Amino acid sequence: MALEARPRPARCIQTRVGCAYCGMNVTYRSLRAVLVTALMGCTLGVAAHDTWFMPLPALRPGELRLALGTGDRFPTQEYAIDPKFLVRRGCNSHASGPVGALRAEQNTATALVLRAPASARSCWAQLTPFQLTLEADKVPVYLKEVNASAELRATWAAMQARGLAWNETYTKHARINLGDVSAQSAEPSGMVMDMLLEAAPGPLRVRDPVVVRVLREGRPLAGFKVELLGELSPLGLWKQTDDQGRITVQPPLPGRWVLRGIDLVLSASRPDEWESRFVTLAFDVAPAAPAAAAATAPPPPRLP
After folding, report:
1. Torsion on CA atoms 196, 200, 203, 209, rounded to nearest 10
2. What angle do CA 37, 41, 46 make, to 5 degrees?
3. How far apart are CA 38 and CA 25, in angstroms?
C-alpha cells in the first residue's frame, strides 16, 4: 500500500446550476477541464454522487486495469478524478498483506484509469476531504438520497430555523473485490471508512449470501444504512448493519453490483457543520451454477 501527501481541503462553491467547483479558479479556457476532471465527486446538483471502481478490459495478457470514477447513479461513471487527490490506495492478493499500490495511467473523460497488480483480489482508494456549501432547496433531496434518519432531519430543521447554511466536509472511499473472495482480500485497508466482503468459497453467484462488514476508523459500524445497486437492477435495496457492522445481501441477477453508504454526522470539531464519509464496494456476481439453475427452472408446459 502506498500513501501520498494529503492536500489541504478545497472549498467547493455551489453554483446556481447545482454544480460544485472544487478548489479551482475557473476561467473560460479551463471550464471544460473543470467540468470533466475536477468535479471529482463533489455532491453535484440534487443528488449524492458516489465514487466507485469498475474493471476494464486488459490491453495485454496478465494486465489488470481499473476505472475509478464518480457518477449520479451506478453503473454510469461521469467524472474523472485527478490522481493528486488520492491520499490512500492499494491492493491485497491471496497472500497476506498489500501487494502494491495502484498506479495511475491516464484520465479519461469519465474515470481515472489505474493499473493494479495481476495478483490483486481487492483494491481500494481514499480521496482527500473536500468542503461544500449546499443550497437549502437541494438539502431535502440530498437527505432522501442518503436515506437520512428522522433525527438527522430534525437536526437540520433546527439549524435552518436559526438561519444556518448547510456546510459539509466529505471524504470518498472506494473498494472493489476482484475474483474469488478470500480472507486476505477482506483485510482492512487503513481507510477511514471501509466495506469488507467477508470470505466465501469460490466466486459469488446469483442468490449467494454476500456478507459485508462496514468499518469506521477500523471498528465495526452498527446501524449503518447501505444500499445495494446492480447494473441490471433499476431499484436499490436498503439494509442496515447489525451490532457487528455486518449486512447480508443476495443479489438476484448476475453482473456488476455496488454497495454504497454515507456516514453523515455533525462535526465534532466545527460547530454547526456536517461531516460525511462516502463508501462503496464493487463486486461481480456470476450466473447461478448449472445444477442450481436447473433445479429452480420452471417445469416445461404440458402439451394437450
Report:
1. -80
2. 120
3. 11
Is the pTM above the cut of 0.85? no
105, HSE (Cβ side, Cα atoms, 13 Å): 15
Cis preceding-peptide flag for 75 (omega within 30 of 0): yes
CA–CA separation, 15 vs 9, rounded Å? 19
> Which of 205, 212, 245 lies closest to 228, judged by CA?
212
The CA distance from 264 to 30, in Å, is: 32
CB atoms within 10 A of CB 280: 24
Give me the residue spans of the domains in the chain: 2-285
63-100, pLDDT tens digit by residue? 899 999 999 999 999 999 999 999 999 998 765 555 67
- The DSSP result for the chain, as a single string, is -EE---PPPEEEEEPTTS-EEES----TTTHHHIIIII-TT---TTSPPEEEEEEE--SSTT-EEEEEEEESBTTB--B---GGGEEEEEEE-SSSSEEE--EEEEE-SS-EEEEE-TT-SEEEEEEPPEEEEE-GGGHHHHHHHTT--HHHHHHHHHHHHTT--EEEEEEEEEEEE-SS--TGGGS--S-SEEEEE---SSS-BTT--EEEEEEETTEE-TT-EEEEEETT-SS-EEEE--TTSEEEE--SSSEEEEEEEEEEEE-SSSTT-EEEEEEEEEEEEBPPPHHHHHHHSPPPPPP-
**Over the stretch 234-248, which tens digit does the pLDDT of each residue have?**
789 999 999 999 999
Rounded Cα–Cα distance for residues 117 and 213 (Å):
24
Specify the length of the chain in residues: 304
